Amino acid sequence: MQWLSQHLVLADASFDGGNLDCGNGLLLLLRKHMDPLRPGQLLEVVSNEVSVEEDLPAWARLTGNELVSCTRAGARRSYLICKGPRSAPATEASFSSPAVSPGVRSASADSVRMMPSPQTEVLPIAPLSVMGVGSWPRPRWMLQAIHEHLEGRLDEQGFQETADDAVRLAVDAQLRAGVDVVTDGEQRRDGYASFVGSRLDNCQLVPITDLLPYVDDPEEFERELRALDVPAQRVRHPAVLGKLQRSRPIAVHELSFARRLTDKPIKVALPGPYLLTRTMWLECVSDRFYREREQLAGDVVNVLREEVKALLAAGAALVQLDEPVLTEVVLGRPAKNRSFMCGALGARRPPEEELAFAVGLINEVIADLPRHRLAVHICRGNWSRDEGVALAGDYRPLLPSLCAIKAGTFFLEMCTPRAGELKVLADLPSSCRLGLGVVNQKTERAETVEEVLACAERAIAVFGPERLLLNPDCGFATFADNPVASAEVAEAKLAAIVAAGHILRQRHGL
Questions:
Q1: pLDDT by residue (tens digit) across 137-147?
Q2: What's the rounded Cα separation, in Å, for the pair 174 and 259?
Q3: Which structural domains are found in the chain, ordered by start?
Q4: What global pTM score does this model have?
């Protein structure tokens, strides 16, 4: 690092990090000040902490930003960082999206919060109904809108209007495929879990690259990020900066808009309480506001319970809690040699303690709510098409926990060979339904109707047709910037499940 007496160009913005180091809050402040800047603009970071001399250049290299120059006067150091490469023009990025349909005005997320809950009847979901797990591939212009909005360069109304168009496309595709239950495709979300960081009070979304100071093995972590096949700075992580509260909906506005587009039942997925607690608990950051992880978990439960109740009141046919990190608890490799999964970054205790903790949190969220409208989804990671890097192992170690969870439905990954033997699940309570994956969302080829029928019939032989729902193993685009399938392939896979479902209902008299 070459020290200059003064910077040769002026910064567009500046902040003083004082004595904070990169692992103790400086990167969170840096991200807060850099996000609103346009590519090519300059941020000055002032610091008195000597370790920043080494850590900040490494952060810039990892995140694709450029350290332009450094100055030092006594203990005071100043770093000039360009957002992106220095050659990038400091102009507003172009933005366009399809126009909103004539005569239709999109309500903002906060205005939807003020709308009264509809009082329509919620019809039960029939056996062998077909649905997606949650996410749907986003159009390129929707991805751009997500990033523009997160970085403060697209206002709320513009973002919601753009997202409305993306939801229309996702719902239309599902309806063409013939599904029985619809999702909005999670089009407004940057990821299946991290998006709550932009909806909850005192929570900030930061690129996952900013977490480098918190991991056990930074070099291994960098290798895992490169395996994402997407710029790692585009994958964001919620960081707790104060007491968590819910002053606006997390997903009720998504449901409200989707209900305008179809009369079919709608499912809404939310990140589960164990997943969020593991994701948000970062030592040296979270412990400034919560003495221990359990205290944070209490507020996570409170905000999720408020949201679940609101979604049920607003007419959601199913509310699904996503808890993929449960498989990491029992199948994950040691911390320094594990497969990447958001939520697996947080420290954990012995598996039996973690599972008991997770079951308790889930049951607190859904206590005394209608079981037939509550579901839990579990998979083994959906961040890459490469089956070799995801977790593998059957549900045997999770079976006691599944039996203890009070949800009425479990959506479980079963089509992939990584999920193991189906018969392991035979001892699940007869009162619960199973949404078992009958297509693998990670493969490029759409399964044939015959392949789906064979997969479904194996499940029917174990559980009977009345307890089964039909779906893919997981979502088609769990992380917005890294979909595992194209929209065309996703629609073809759902259409194959629908065709198989018609045959199965006739075959089994349903």
A1: 999 999 999 99
A2: 14
A3: 3-82 (3.30.110.40), 109-189+247-507 (3.20.20.210)
A4: 0.80
